[in-house]
Amino acid sequence: MFKKLVGITSALTLTLGLAACGGTETSSDSEGATKSVGEQVDYKIIGIDPGAGIMNLTINDVLPGYELDEWEVVEGSGSAMAAALKKAYDKEEPIIVTGWSPHWKFASYDLKYLEDPKGIYGGAEDVNTIVRQGLKEDHPDAYKLLDQFQWEPEHIETVMNLIQEGSEPAEAAAQWASENEELVSTWTEGVNEVDGEELTLLYVAWDDVIASSHVAENALESVGYDVKLVQVDAGPMWAGVADGSGDALVGAWLPTTHADYYAEYEGKFEDLGANLTGTKLGLVVPAYMDVDSIEDLK
């Protein structure tokens, strides 16, 4: 249960408390201590964009799978979820959010995933690079660079933290690239320079995808491409690559988050495989909350 600190009014009790406990103690009689986790958060899980894979999975599989009939997943956006988390965390209030890694929130706050004993959220996901059909023939060097674009969670989290701390995404990407020239050189190995050929990268406004898309843009521009970044929702992002209005995306979360879009447009794009591995999905709470498993939400 989420516990509130209570003051000790008696001077004698305060003296004894300081001697025995180092100056503070928690009360099992506090208002929050008698409430269930559900009551503390009004049976609400703070979610992100409607239609996102983690939202569909939480609403359609996790809630019924754990018999959480009273619970509601609040639709919003990644930024709205992060703002709600920050507000609650700063006040040490209870909150449950849909979460994924990599994400800057794990570097900024002391958080934990709730255990998923039924395994409904599945194992680690990959983030794949998806390109339109014909890109290899039209822009072979861009295709080669995107095919060689691979990095680790700690790399993307560094870029995300720079953005969270106030850097513009393009500035954060440029700083990271200048500090990681050896890795970037593996992406551009064997890639010929071009003279202003135009490319369009589509991306969703998720912190990790913003970071990865700007880093990919930086790498492509370093070999002479004129890159246009277009922010859209997940559905239009996939549709754009499928119909050729967009050249590529580097933020395809698979096999779960974007599974519906992958199935809908399969055969109309080329999957270049994972550019990042070791991701995770689930329900996330501040570490100060006394709850460890999704089963505890009943």
TrEMBL record:
Q: Where in the cell is it found?
A: Cell membrane
Q: Which PANTHER family does this entry report, sorted A to Z?
A: GLYCINE BETAINE/PROLINE BETAINE TRANSPORT SYSTEM PERMEASE PROTEIN PROW, GLYCINE BETAINE_PROLINE BETAINE TRANSPORT SYSTEM PERMEASE PROTEIN PROW
Ranges for domain ABC-type glycine betaine transport system substrate-binding come to: 26-178, 199-298
Any one GO molecular-function label of the UniProt entry = amine transmembrane transporter activity
Give GO terms for biological process. Answer: choline transport; glycine betaine transport
Pfam families in the record: OpuAC
Which positions carry the signal peptide feature in this UniProt record? 1-19
Which source organism does the UniProt entry give? Mesobacillus persicus
Keywords per UniProt: Cell membrane, Membrane, Signal, Transport
Can you supply one Gene Ontology CC term for this chain's record?
Answer: ATP-binding cassette (ABC) transporter complex
Q: What is this protein called?
A: Glycine betaine/proline transport system substrate-binding protein
